[in-house]
Amino acid sequence: MITSSIALLDFLLETREHTETICKPLQIEDYVVQPIEDVSPPKWHLGHTTWFFEDFILKKFKDDYQVYDDHFAFVFNSYYESMGARVVRTDRGNLSRPTVDQVYAYRKYVTNALTALLEENDTDELAQLIEIGIHHEKQHQELLLTDIKYILGNNPLLPTYSSEFQEFKLNPNPAEWLSIPEGIYEIGHKGDGFSYDNELGLHKVYLNSFEISSRLVTNSEYIQFIEAGGYESVLLWHSEGWAWINDNAIKAPLYWHKNDNYYEYYGLNGLQKLNLEAPVTHISYYEAFAYAQWKGLRLPTEFEWEVAQSQFDWGERWEWTESAYLPYPNYTKAPGALGEYNGKFMVSQKTLRGGSVATSNYHTRPTYRNFFHPQLRWQFTGLRLAR
Amino acid sequence: MITSSIALLDFLLETREHTETICKPLQIEDYVVQPIEDVSPPKWHLGHTTWFFEDFILKKFKDDYQVYDDHFAFVFNSYYESMGARVVRTDRGNLSRPTVDQVYAYRKYVTNALTALLEENDTDELAQLIEIGIHHEKQHQELLLTDIKYILGNNPLLPTYSSEFQEFKLNPNPAEWLSIPEGIYEIGHKGDGFSYDNELGLHKVYLNSFEISSRLVTNSEYIQFIEAGGYESVLLWHSEGWAWINDNAIKAPLYWHKNDNYYEYYGLNGLQKLNLEAPVTHISYYEAFAYAQWKGLRLPTEFEWEVAQSQFDWGERWEWTESAYLPYPNYTKAPGALGEYNGKFMVSQKTLRGGSVATSNYHTRPTYRNFFHPQLRWQFTGLRLAR
Amino acid sequence: MITSSIALLDFLLETREHTETICKPLQIEDYVVQPIEDVSPPKWHLGHTTWFFEDFILKKFKDDYQVYDDHFAFVFNSYYESMGARVVRTDRGNLSRPTVDQVYAYRKYVTNALTALLEENDTDELAQLIEIGIHHEKQHQELLLTDIKYILGNNPLLPTYSSEFQEFKLNPNPAEWLSIPEGIYEIGHKGDGFSYDNELGLHKVYLNSFEISSRLVTNSEYIQFIEAGGYESVLLWHSEGWAWINDNAIKAPLYWHKNDNYYEYYGLNGLQKLNLEAPVTHISYYEAFAYAQWKGLRLPTEFEWEVAQSQFDWGERWEWTESAYLPYPNYTKAPGALGEYNGKFMVSQKTLRGGSVATSNYHTRPTYRNFFHPQLRWQFTGLRLAR
Amino acid sequence: MITSSIALLDFLLETREHTETICKPLQIEDYVVQPIEDVSPPKWHLGHTTWFFEDFILKKFKDDYQVYDDHFAFVFNSYYESMGARVVRTDRGNLSRPTVDQVYAYRKYVTNALTALLEENDTDELAQLIEIGIHHEKQHQELLLTDIKYILGNNPLLPTYSSEFQEFKLNPNPAEWLSIPEGIYEIGHKGDGFSYDNELGLHKVYLNSFEISSRLVTNSEYIQFIEAGGYESVLLWHSEGWAWINDNAIKAPLYWHKNDNYYEYYGLNGLQKLNLEAPVTHISYYEAFAYAQWKGLRLPTEFEWEVAQSQFDWGERWEWTESAYLPYPNYTKAPGALGEYNGKFMVSQKTLRGGSVATSNYHTRPTYRNFFHPQLRWQFTGLRLAR
Questions:
Q1: Least CA distance to D100: which residue of chain C?
Q2: How many whole angstroms separate alpha carbon B188 and alpha carbon B193?
Q3: CA torsion C294→C296→C301→C306, rounded to 10°?
Q4: pLDDT, chain C, mean
Q5: Min CA distance, B164 vs chain C (Å)?
Q6: Which domains does chain D have, with CATH numbers?
Q7: N or C: which end of chain C has fewer CB within 10 A?
Q8: What is the average per-residue pLDDT within D172-185?
């Protein structure tokens, strides 16, 4: 819990500003498009994170609050069914208006109103909601950056986002197996710090002894899988994974371009030769699983990961686990619309642990649970083996 | 045929400029989106009409011509299969790059190159191709304007394109039936003026005597059809028209908004009360047909229309005819890629005659044949009865 | 018009019996399946032609008529929207009940009731409706046979329908061009004989002089088109035809099986080597058109065909024409539900002329207009050239 | 493990016969259809269970084995990608051949060959494979019965399968909460008896204390959920569950027919008034979850269920659990094609525990793990609450 409203205000302002910093390299046109359903236009992220503050906080805490524009709730609501009608997700890229300038003006208006509100109200209730709003915006910062990558990286001109952006740092240490003994372990968030409801419900799990790799699988290792015919070996794949690679003609991770003798890779710093020692990324759960099958190994569960994580470096790639994204024992969702935040997605998705080069600071932690459908690849996903 | 290359150059420059004038009221964001497959982003029209000149003329007539950007052929080719790979139609709205500024620079570069070319080459062959390019661009000017209307008119903010734009002028004359006697008539384009290949092949048709209305059907008349239950009366509709209105929950023309007691209409000059005396527009062929059935009348054929057209005013609405879009006797398509212009669409579409408030000057004529699939409504279509 | 009710009864009974004769070679299982939407289960044809008599005639003319089973109207109505709810077309193959035995019992019950009715009522009104019912059933006889061919010919076991069935007879005469002079011709049905509403409205058309082939295109000729790369030459195809062959990986007519050195063909008499001199069949309009383009020729219009037909043999293959299926001048559809018979399909389809080896006797004539969507191939379609 | 080959032969023959007994009430037509992708034609189950014995056993153990029909592997292979090409799942209902008689002859041929084989070979290896084949067939017996229910229960004639079939027995005891203390429990199959690979890997889990209901939720209780607006309350549903009920207009369990004042229910014994005290069935996981949410309770995990199951009656309804269907620790799949049996489905599905009135004898046990996608309802699913 943030202890003072001044610190909270700083945290808020810094977060609001960082969102806009991420967009600095963009052209106006880049803010508008939605090449696939999972990717939202940058403009939409800018507006949606703002609407969240307006709708859940300003309308509630300021009696005389003047909504910036009545249409914006319709345009920028994402999925809060209980908050009224909204633009269907697949239509986000069809909206040229409001313009980017209008959205920035909307951001400024709401940030100013939040600042004024925080100066006159220092209740815990407000502080808690502001904190949720900040973390909500940080979560969208990661999506914003990965959505920008998708928009630019699927454009035939392959424009560079920023030549300074580093998607990985090379790890000089060799991979080793870390051993964790059998036993009862505690899982879940504890302490005062911020967490989402899906991390709460501290509880015990029983783990068999296992070993987990100290390093992520690298591009070089993944190429061996490709060259050994991994994408053509049906027995390595889940039934729906096999259908997915065949229906979509998948032969390599996303953003890989095969040339005669080598692979190129589109990174936020542009198209370049694939770095063989970098951790493989932009793979689906199906691919992570098939790779592990091919090695005769497996993915860790999210509990194994949480128990072992202090013994290895993490944070460059979101790591697919074998666990399904399910409620912890005694999970209870928040009352009202905020209760839609996490619980409604707890079916048919896999849990990922860790964080990525696109994750904002203060946004991940050892108990953080990310989740995606098993075929999705546009995040900086990765793969760590266990046995 | 344009008789001098100076006149041709003027015609070219005026046409190139007019395209840009149409875009003047747009925000950059408006240039980018593609809300439905049939609508292209304005940016794409600007680039495609330019690519057409570059690919069919500059590359052919200027030996040392330097292509502006190698990627643009891929981005701006529309459907000329024989001219190589291209962005699939449904992906046009996913492209944020090239930017609008880059597209305008591309236009300038190509217009300048065409100007220089025309100053040094006055062959008939070049003049003919330039003329095709001009008419191609004029054709896209109409699509550009109707696509802009779709983009703005389907945005929840309903922005106005231009408060001065008039979509109709009121016709003070009452409707009358014009009688045309039975006999043999000549159909098709004659003379030196420009026409497309699909108008050529002057030929005779035999027409029974018929009557055709001097006026288009009005909004007021169309409301009677709606209120009489036209959209719920299966026997008025083609089988596939009935499926279409039901699958899409169609209850009125496009851009109509039903309020408690009246209809509002989104026009290029903004949302306003529907003018009852204006000609009905934005209807599909299915709706035009069902209306005629309900009146116990019919649509004219395109031949009847061509024979009768000198006796009535036309040009505000493209008029659906009962005719399918088919080749005239002795139709021959142009050799090479230009042969893809018209002939390849001569199946499953209906012919429309006339022109519309969005049609550029010098672009329509009594023999002009427009064509669309029967369900399309985003053009300024209309309806004239015959019997 | 049939002149006596005895002759009419004979015609009816013979027709009813012939439908069942067509089904003689079937196993019960063959009656049930619907491999594609366009193909109906044989059981459905047996029931639907019976329901037509029950619903349009028996219920109208017999006051005390006892409907055989109340559910059958729901099961066997095809598309008469005005006659109430019905099983959607794509679900016909999901119905195991009523059983084949029940459907035959239903047929017998209705045929007996019709016999009794004809013995007590000799009005013209009844006779006309019976005649429509007979021709409706004959029309379904052709579909029944071609649907059976599809069901058996797409089964991996490729069972033979009847080893005696001859799909063609060899024509010993060489192809010649028949010349028809320019002029005004009369089109449409005349005289007392039966015709559908879509053939009526005798009217004049003006034809340019043209030539038409005395023979259908043969398999041997069509193979030349394939071997010359016809299916890979985009400029020969309509835009939607090109999409269709590519989306469906079409490389040859339906029922052709390519072996190393030759084609096999599945006919109603089983799988065998393709007869090179037989007329090509089971081609779409798109393929017919592309073949003609490749030859530098064209398809005749339906008017040209009708005017020339007395000078050549026809009746083995339905012949694609260049004409769209549209109403003749002064076309009026029958009142009430029978009006749904033809008119509602007069959009987006092509006209075929002639008849086929699957056409029942007395069912085609020089003015008969068949119609299908341009991609359909499961009928015995064919191709005659004009120029 | 079955201890003698005579006992094994008896078990085999009894199983083979029971499959055919299930089909006794069918008409031939009922064997053929596939109304939805998840439902296979009864004929296909008869053939597929036979092909399994032929392909995995007879071809392997009998050198001179004569395959019954070479086409049948293509027709009756289900999903064993490693065993070669096969009819795609959605096409199973398009196959009228082989006929039902041929399939029964095939069954007899293979059963006889298996009998002869067992008489001459008493190796453990054979016995184990036969046992798998028996359990495979028992698994299909349940699908066969529920597929038959779907085929008949979705036919507009609603034919009865068997008037003697009882889908439930009334439970006279009131519901109570059973308490299980916190602690470490062992999960998984032990002992010599048959089990599938997905039950193996005996392992410990740590459970919090919990309570589980001694009874399944009844129709009467479920009606309260419906009448309280459960299907209209977005906050009770998963995001994809909400989309599913709305896209499919789901308002009640499958096979419920709403009348003016009460519900009717289609059971294998025909359509009748819904028994209010019977356990609710034919619900999706989404509905089970929403019901529990509405009660402020939850579903048990599969581990809780396994630990508590000895304290309550079960076996009438497969019970949805909150658990995802995932591999147990140290899960290893069988080598070769048999390895495709379970593991390839371990993503995106939910685990069900228990058994149902359609489950064959000896086929379920406390450790048995059934699994389906969360929207499926055609099995006899049910719902037990926990807290």
A1: C29
A2: 12
A3: -100
A4: 94
A5: 39
A6: 5-153 (1.20.120), 177-382 (3.90.1580.10)
A7: N
A8: 95
Return the pLDDT at C203.
Answer: 96
pLDDT tens-digit map of D282-329: 999 999 999 999 999 999 999 999 999 999 999 999 999 999 999 999
Task: Report how far residue A35's alpha carbon sits from residue A150's, in angstroms, rounded to the nearest whole number.
Answer: 8
Q: How far is residue B386's CA from residue B301's CA, in Å, rounded to a whole number?
A: 9
Quickly tell me which residue has 């008349």 as its tokens: B221
Comparing CA positions, the residue from B132, B139, B108 lying closest to residue B20 is: B108
> What pLDDT, on a 0 to 100 scale, did the predictor assign at position D4?
76
Exposure of A174 by Cβ count < 10 A (0-12 exposed, 13-18 middle, 19+ buried)? Answer: exposed
Pairing of β B177-180 and β A381-382: unpaired
Give the residues across from D353 on adjacent strands.
Answer: D319
Nearest-CA distance from D238 to chain A in Å? 4
Q: Which among A96, A151, A157 has CB closest to B98?
A: A157
DSSP bridge pairs for D382? D319
pLDDT of D169 > 80? The answer is yes
Radius of gyration of chain D (CA): 22
Distances (CA, A) of A379 to A244, A344, C110: 18, 21, 66
Q: Enter the pTM of the model.
A: 0.95
pLDDT of residue C2 exceeding 60, the answer is: no
Q: How many DSSP H helices and E strands does chain A contain?
A: 10, 11
Q: Which residue has the higher pLDDT, B170 or B317?
A: B317
CB atoms within 10 A of CB A248: 10
Residue D271 φ/ψ, nearest 5 degrees: -80, 130
Buried b / exposed e over C227-244, threshold 16 CB at 10 Å, is eeebbeebbbbbbbbbeb
Q: Which long-range contacts (CB under 8 A, 24 or more apart) does B181-186 make?
A: B181/B209, B182/B207, B182/B208, B182/B209, B183/B207, B184/C184, B184/C206, B185/B303, B185/B306, B185/B307
pLDDT tens digits, one per residue of C140-163: 999 999 999 999 999 999 999 999
pLDDT at site B146: 98
Closest chain A residue to B99, measured at CA: A29
Give the pLDDT of residue B31: 98
**Beta carbons of B285 and C184 less than 8 Å apart:** no
Check if the beta carbon of residue A350 is closer than 8 Å to that of residue A325.
Answer: yes
CA angle in degrees (0–180, nearest 5) for D195-D201-D204:
125
Nearest to D33 among C95, C98, C100 (CB): C95
* Chain C contacts to D (CB-CB under 8 A): 27-35, 43, 71, 74-75, 87, 91, 93-100, 151-152, 154-157, 159
Instruction: For chain B, state the CA radius of gyration.
Output: 22
Closest-approach residue (CA) in chain A for D239:
A344
Least confident of A104-108, A281-285, B74-78, D38-42: B74-78
Compute the count of residue pairs across chains C and D with CB atoms less than 8 Å apart.
94
